[in-house]
Amino acid sequence: MSHQARFNALADWLRGAVTPQERFTLSYNAEASDFIRFNHAKVRQAGHVQQASLQFKLIEDGRHADLNLTLSGDETVDRQRLNEALHQLRETLTLLPVDPYLLLNDDAWQSSNVQDAPLPNSARVVEQIAQLGEGLDLVGIYAAGPIYRGFASSSGALGWHQANSFNVDWSLFHENGQAVKANYAGHAWDDEAFARRFTLAREQLEFLGHPSHPLPPGQYRAYLAPAALEEVMSMLCWGGFSAQSLADKTSPLQRLYDGHATLNPLVSLGEQVTGSLSPAFSSEGYPRADLSLVVDGVAKDRLIDSRSAAEYNLTANGAGWGESPSALSMNGGSLALDDVLKALGTGLYISNLWYLNFSDRTAGRITGMTRFATFWVENGKIKAPVSTMRFDDSLFSLLGSALEQLTSERELILSASTYSQRQTASNLLPGALVSRLTLTL
């Protein structure tokens, strides 16, 4: 029996088991994943994980309680587990107060999306990684396989989502301890695209053996590669588009949404659900559609979950917990990748950033560290690596007045998180050339 058939059978059984006064939502999460770990470009650990679980919410008279269930794949066993969960939640509900911000979706919507493009044979991927990494200190992990998501409710809503994906996350270490971090992810494997990405990492590794170029604190022209820009975007997404944060006046993009500031007209950001790994419905039971968060530097849509909708009299649009984008897409620009160093001229080429945090959240100021393969460039040519340094700058500068160009080519960066399960979050981002980035120490 397929994952979808198992889930539908459990949902049908539950509809017949609840009383007319009871309501429920049921979310399904499953995966069948290969995990292969590398060290010194050799396979050190290989495994396959198959798992499935349910998130079951029972509601009655404004009270609700949740329970997570691990499924066995045996229909009889799983139905019994769901039955026991139903009785346990009934007992729990009697102890709970009414939730004033509970807002259920009563629409009987239907949604189905199956992205089943064939994934590469894992043995072939291992062979290519071993060939490209021969003689190198390569450390990394390859994760691939289908991810399944489902939703059903007592109101008749039914959603299904399946997406195949792969993610190679690796680092190349120099003998001096420095490293180049790289990633290749997507839905359809391309040998040539992976080889190009690997070649770039290998070329950067050679520069790490040069003496480092000392830099005093100050403002420097800089290019942020997509992986570095993703770290900046993660801060912007931390409450930036959240209806709750905007209502509480704690959003780092408060000035943007209040109309007191704009970003560079080059900046257009959207929640691009269509075609992404992310399902077109939330675990709360609201359909999700593509949203235009920022258009030509001006704020548009915001992310609204059911609780914010109830509290602030808004319309829920399928945002998940935390009201952060799960399929963020940023429009590209006109800068060709081959012209990045020439356009940068003299300044910093930044492959990665890390340890980012807010230095002034309401003003949109962030701080963090350069990481892995940050290079000093002179006259369009890489000269030397730069030691780790701290930056402190404003989102309204990096994505506003200081932004000069965006690359025409964008990189799909999938979440590498495997905490309890593989995630479906993604970012589709270009690289960014900025006229100034402030280094503080």
Automatic annotation (TrEMBL):
Region forming the signal peptide: none
One GO process term, biological-process aspect: proteolysis
Domain annotation Metalloprotease TldD/E C-terminal: ranges: 217-438
Listed transmembrane segments: none
Keywords of the record: Hydrolase, Protease
Keyword Hydrolase: yes
InterPro entries per record: Metalloprtase-TldD/E_C, TldD/PmbA_sf
Protein name according to UniProt: Predicted Zn-dependent protease or its inactivated homolog
